[in-house]
C-alpha cells in the first residue's frame, strides 16, 4: 500500500514538473478554445450579449477600428481560416450591402461576439436588415444650441468624428476622466442606427466634430 502511494506521488511530481517548464505561450495554446468551422459566405449575427463590437483592421484587440456594429447586425464570413492572437479567435467578415453607414465594410471580429442561427429577438440571418428613419421613441434631444455637455460617467471616452457616422475619421478623443466641457453647436443627425450631435471645445482655439448622443449629458 505504501509503495502504491509513493508511486502515485512520484507521478504527480513529474506532471507538475513538466507543466512548470512549459513556456507561457505553450500553456496559452493548450488553453485556447476551439475555433468554429464557419465557411466562406456563412451568415452570422452580432450577439445580443455584447453592447457593440468594433470591426478591426487586423486580428488583434489593439488594432485600429474600422467600424462599429451593434447587437443583431448581420455579417458574412469572408475567410474560412480564423486567426488566433494568443487570447481569442478572430474572423475576417464583411457587412452586407444595405443602406447602413457601414455597408460593405470588411475587417476582423472576435469569435465570441458572433452567433449563427436566430437567437430570440435577432433578425433572421438570411435577411438583410433595413435601417429605417428614427422611431418616434428615439426623437433627437431638445437641448438648446449652446448647451454645455460632457461625457457620461459610465462611458470611458468618446471619439469626436468629422462626420455623423461610426465609420468616419476621428478628430480627437475625449476621455471621461478629464471631465472635458463641450458645447452643443448643431442639430442632431440620425445615421440609421443612432443620433449624433455636433460639439465644439471651449476656448479661443476650438476643435469640433460629431459624437454619439447617448454618450453625452448636459452639465447641470
Spell out the blueprint of helices and strands.
Elements: H1 2-21, H2 24-31, E1 43-46, E2 53-56, E3 65-69, E4 74-77, E5 83-84, E6 89-94, E7 106-110, E8 114-115, E9 148-151, E10 157-161, E11 170-175, E12 182-190, E13 195-201, E14 208-212, E15 216-218
Describe this structure in words.
The chain is mainly beta and 220 residues long. The chain has two domains: 43-115, SH3 Domains (SH3 type barrels, Roll), CATH 2.30.30; 136-218, SH3 Domains (SH3 type barrels). It contains two helices and 15 strands. The protein has helices spanning 2-21, 24-31, and strands at 43-46, 53-56, 65-69, 74-77, 83-84, 89-94, 106-110, 114-115, 148-151, 157-161, 170-175, 182-190, 195-201, 208-212, 216-218. Strands 1, 4, 5, 6, 7 and 8 form a six-stranded antiparallel β-sheet that branches. A five-stranded antiparallel β-sheet has the order 14-13-12-9-15, with no helix packed on it.
Q: Tell me, what's the shape? A: elongated
- Report the radius of gyration as a whole number of Å: 24 Å
Q: Summarize model confidence as the mean pLDDT.
A: 77
Q: Biggest sheet, in brief? A: 6 strands, antiparallel
Number of helices: 2
Q: Could you say how many structural domains there are in total?
A: 2
Structural class comes to: mainly beta
Unreliable segments (pLDDT under 50, ≥5 consecutive)? 18-32, 118-132
Tell me the CATH topology of the largest domain: SH3 type barrels
CATH architecture name of the largest domain: Roll
Measured distance between first and last alpha carbons:
77 Å
CATH H-level superfamily of the largest domain: SH3 Domains
How many individual β-strands?
15
- How much strand? 25-35%
H/E element order: HHEEEEEEEEEEEEEEE
Amino acid at each position: 500500500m505504501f509503495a502504491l502511494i509513493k508511486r502515485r506521488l512520484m507521478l504527480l511530481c513529474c506532471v507538475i514538473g513538466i507543466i512548470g517548464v512549459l513556456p507561457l505561450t505553450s500553456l496559452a495554446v493548450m488553453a485556447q478554445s476551439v475555433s468554429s468551422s464557419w465557411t466562406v459566405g456563412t451568415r452570422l449575427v452580432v450577439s445580443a450579449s455584447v453592447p457593440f463590437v468594433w470591426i478591426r483592421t487586423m486580428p488583434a484587440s489593439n488594432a485600429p477600428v474600422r467600424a462599429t456594429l451593434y447587437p443583431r447586425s448581420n455579417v458574412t464570413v469572408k475567410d474560412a481560416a480564423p486567426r488566433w492572437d494568443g487570447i481569442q479567435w478572430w474572423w475576417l467578415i464583411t457587412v452586407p450591402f444595405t443602406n447602413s453607414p457601414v455597408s460593405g465594410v470588411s475587417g476582423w471580429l472576435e469569435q465570441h461576439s458572433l452567433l449563427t442561427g436566430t437567437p430570440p429577438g435577432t433578425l433572421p440571418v438570411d435577411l438583410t436588415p433595413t435601417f429605417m428613419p428614427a422611431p418616434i421613441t428615439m426623437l433627437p434631444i431638445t437641448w438648446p444650441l449652446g448647451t454645455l455637455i460632457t461625457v457620461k460617467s459610465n462611458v470611458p471616452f468618446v471619439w469626436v468624428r468629422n462626420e455623423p457616422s461610426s465609420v468616419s475619421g476621428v478628430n480627437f478623443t475625449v476621455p471621461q476622466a478629464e471631465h472635458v466641457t463641450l458645447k452643443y453647436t448643431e442639430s442632431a443627425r440620425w445615421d440609421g442606427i443612432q443620433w449624433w450631435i455636433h460639439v465644439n471645445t471651449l476656448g479661443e482655439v476650438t476643435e469640433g466634430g460629431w459624437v454619439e448622443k447617448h454618450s453625452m449629458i448636459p452639465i447641470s
